From TrEMBL:
Lineage of source species: Bacteria, Pseudomonadati, Pseudomonadota, Gammaproteobacteria, Moraxellales
GO molecular function, one term: ATP hydrolysis activity
Similarity-based family: Belongs to the ABC transporter superfamily.
CDD domains found in the cross-reference section: ABC_Iron-Siderophores_B12_Hemin
Name the UniProt record assigns to this protein: ABC transporter family protein
Species of provenance: Acinetobacter baumannii 21072
Length: 228
């Protein structure tokens, strides 16, 4: 799992959308398995890379199961096979959404809806998942559920997850790698335990960080109760 971190306007989402082929780079090239992604056919790319953008939404009235089924489109082209249905069932089960599979997405909570969209992305069965701020507007419980699910995807299924994230503590405790951007440029990158330091974070966010460790993980504290 790789987290893209940095201040607003640093270019995190832009970089992710370039990897998703939704924005063309002004210069430079992006490669997947040693092949320029610009040279890969869309139908093929969709079987290798899945993208979940911010605040996804559908005007159609869909159940959770129907939404997750959309993840099979690169394979089924809208006509689900028995294998497709099995993959959909597995994605729903992976995120513990069985009780909601017949619920309409516009009638469930925001956290449950985000889990349903993530299940759709998982059902696409790609090697790489690109997620743009998947924790946006979620409460702590649902944010933890999603980060745990992403960690399991990496550990149990060998998937690669690249996400844009603002919560530095989630990034630090769940990610293998960190890529930090500032002012549209790479600020630092590397293994999480090597690059997450007080000095690095102070410089990146222009705040005063204190990093502490416990059995529960790493805590990056940037609060100052005095307001100074």
């Amino acid at each position: 799992m790789t987290s893209l971190i940095g201040p607003n306007g640093a270019g995190k989402s832009t970089l992710l959308m370039m990897m998703a082929r939704l924005i063309e780079p002004d210069k430079g090239e992006i490669f997947l398995n040693h092949q320029n992604i610009a040279d890969i056919k869309t139908a093929i790319y969709a079987k290798h890379v899945a993208t979940l953008r911010q605040a996804p939404g559908f005007n159609l009235r869909l159940t959770v199961e129907e939404l997750v089924s959309f993840g099979r489109f690169p394979y089924s082209r809208g006509v689900l096979t028995e294998q497709d249905r099995q993959v959909v069932d597995e994605a729903i089960e992976f995120l513990s959404l069985e009780a909601l599979r017949k619920s309409y997405i516009d009638e469930i909570s925001g956290g449950q809806r985000q889990m349903a969209f993530l299940a759709m992305t998982i059902a696409q069965q790609t090697d790489v998942l690109l997620l743009d701020e998947p924790l946006n507007n979620l409460d702590m419980k649902h944010a933890v559920q999603i980060m745990r699910a992403l960690r399991r995807l990496c550990d149990e299924q060998g998937r690669t997850v690249i996400l844009v994230i603002h919560d530095i503590n989630f990034a630090t405790n769940y990610s293998d790698h960190i890529v930090a951007l500032k002012n549209g440029k790479l600020h630092f990158s590397g293994l999480t335990e090597q690059v997450i330091t007080e000095a690095q974070l102070n410089d990146l966010y222009e705040l005063d960080f204190e990093i502490t460790y416990s059995e529960r993980g790493c805590m990056c504290n940037y609060f100052n109760s005095s307001g100074a």
